[in-house]
Amino acid sequence: MSLKYLHTMVRVKDLEKSMAFYALLGLKETRRFDHEGGRFTLVFMAPPGQEDCPVELTYNWDGDDALPDDSRHFGHLAYRVSNIYETCQHLMDNGVTINRPPRDGHMAFVRSPDNISIELLQEGDDLPSAEPWASMENTGHW
């Protein structure tokens, strides 16, 4: 039996707002399908050069009153970044709350506009502890 990873699907309430969030992480739209009969749109976004590892944003045209909810049952998406401090600063500068700051120079968590938990992991060795991250408190949960 062979197995191949295809994608991770998350439901989104506001497609443009969600796409803008994932673009802040560096993901680009790789393909899109508008399904008139089913009244939904699928947008696949992936890091450049990694188009085979996308997140699928599923947007229901008629809305989804259950979104955003806690979404803790989902778990999280994880992305490796070249500099966790620069990535978190970029996200903060664009209005994203850092729920679990990278105090250890290794790991941080943020949430998408649809309350999806996103784990950010430092590529290679952990960065040395640095402010303001080292003393930054958690915000909410992840």
Mean pLDDT figure: 90
Span from first to last CA?
Answer: 35 Å
Strand content: 25-35%
How would you write the strand order of the largest sheet? Answer: 1-4-3-2
Number of strands: 8
CATH homologous superfamily placement of the largest domain: 2,3-Dihydroxybiphenyl 1,2-Dioxygenase, domain 1
Radius of gyration: 16 Å
What percent of the residues sit in helical stretches (DSSP H or I)?
A: 10-25%
Instruction: Quickly give the structural class.
Output: alpha/beta
Question: Under the CATH scheme, which architecture of the largest domain would be assigned?
Answer: Roll
Major sheet summary line: 4 strands, mixed
pLDDT below 50 for ≥5 consecutive residues: which ranges? none
Order of helices and strands: EHEEEEHEEE
- Which CATH class of the largest domain? Alpha Beta
Number of separate domains: 2
- Counting DSSP H or I runs of 4 or more residues, the number of helices is 2
Describe the protein in words.
The chain is α/β, with parallel strands linked by helices and 142 residues long. It has 2 domains: 1-63, 2,3-Dihydroxybiphenyl 1,2-Dioxygenase, domain 1, CATH 3.10.180; 71-133, Roll (2,3-Dihydroxybiphenyl 1,2-Dioxygenase, domain 1). Helix content is 14%, strand content 32%. The protein has helices at residues 15-24, 84-93, and strands at residues 8-12, 28-35, 40-46, 55-60, 77-81, 98-100, 107-111, 117-122. The strands form 2 sheets. The chain has a 4-stranded mixed beta sheet, with helices on one face. The protein has a 4-stranded mixed beta sheet with strand order 5-8-7-6, with helices on one face. A hairpin with a 6-residue loop joins strand 6 (98-100) and strand 7. The protein is globular, with a radius of gyration of 16 Å. It starts with 7 loop residues before the first strand and ends in a 20-residue tail after the last strand. The model has no long low-confidence stretch (mean pLDDT 90).
